[in-house]
Specification:
Layout lengths: L3 H12 L4 H10 L4 H10 L10 H25 L7 E6 L3 E3 L3 E9 L6 E11 L2 E12 L2 E9 L7 E11 L2 E12 L5 H9 L23 E6 L2 E6 L19 H4 L6 H12 L3 H9 L4 H15 L11 H12 L13 H19 L4
Parallel strand pairs: 2-8
Antiparallel strand pairs: 1-3, 3-6, 4-5, 4-7, 7-8, 9-10
Helix pairs in contact: 1-3, 7-8, 7-9, 8-9, 9-10
Amino acid sequence: MVQDSLVQYVKNLLQQGYDYAAIRTALLNAGYSYNDVEVAFRFAGYQPKRIIPTKFLIVSFLILLVLAGGVLIVLKSFQAPPAVLSFSLNLFSTEVGVGQEVVVNADIQNPGGRSVSGLIDFSVDGPSGKIASVTESFKMTYRASVPVSLKLPANIPSGSYVLKAVISYAGRSESQFVSFDVVEKARLERPMDALAEKPVERAKEAQLACPGGCDDLNFCTVDSCVNGVCVYSPVVPCCGNGVCESGESVSSCVLDCGERFVSTDEIRENARALASSNLPKAMEACDTMAQRVLIDGCLNVVSESADSKEPCARIISDDIRDSCYIPFSYKNDFSVCSEITNSYMKNSCLSLAEINSLKASLPQS
């Protein structure tokens, strides 16, 4: 049992401000045992401060770093993969007169189906280097067409030239090349001259009565502009809101009424697979998707897979519908020209039709 006098002695020294370590050392040097000294401090009411070892702190910090790194890796694994676009170039004519315009369309496709924007740099290179260039921007979800015309100088020699397009988006860039021939105007005959001198309209129609537009990014409303004021009308039932409402069924909205969750990607790929064998069923599959932009993109995919214009007519978005129709003009189906709303693309389609008609009428060499 520790002596009361020792406890009182320790208490008095502590009250006078002496340090624990100094008191402890003095008592041990005086012959008191380690156990008696510690017990005396405890009875004297002294609470030693706990010092966390430096090694423990370092180990704890390393464990936190490892855990944080693991969380970042998990979060990164859930992020959508970066968009990878593919594109091709289609010349409206492989022969262009000196001083005329070379007209080309860039057909861009996005298999991922996420919104992507970027730039396309077009340039024409000849024996003396770059002779024409232009840059266009684009914004797309599934597919987009970017038509441009480049005016050729009047003093370039005839011969073979190369048109280059470089697409840049999300830190990526890809290039495509097509070649064409520059020929003397005399070889094109008068009708071709008249056609070549017809200017191609470049202005894009944009009629927005409400500054900034009225898209509220809610696919369960119909957005409109009335006398400069945005009006949002509810869509009922609304396929894609997670509720199987009155008027919806598995056949009309598998997203809300299906027994299991079906992704929009799965619906689109199913429609693509059906396109070649059962076009009406493929279009019905597209109609079960929630948002109008997704339906339009799906119909565009179905049109391409089935090589049919029929799905294009059901597309609401002007841009997507034009992108759906324009590839058929490359296959010499110029009936689509009247369906295209973009004035620049329509003029390009009509010009290509006239060029092909004129070429067909020229005597074969």
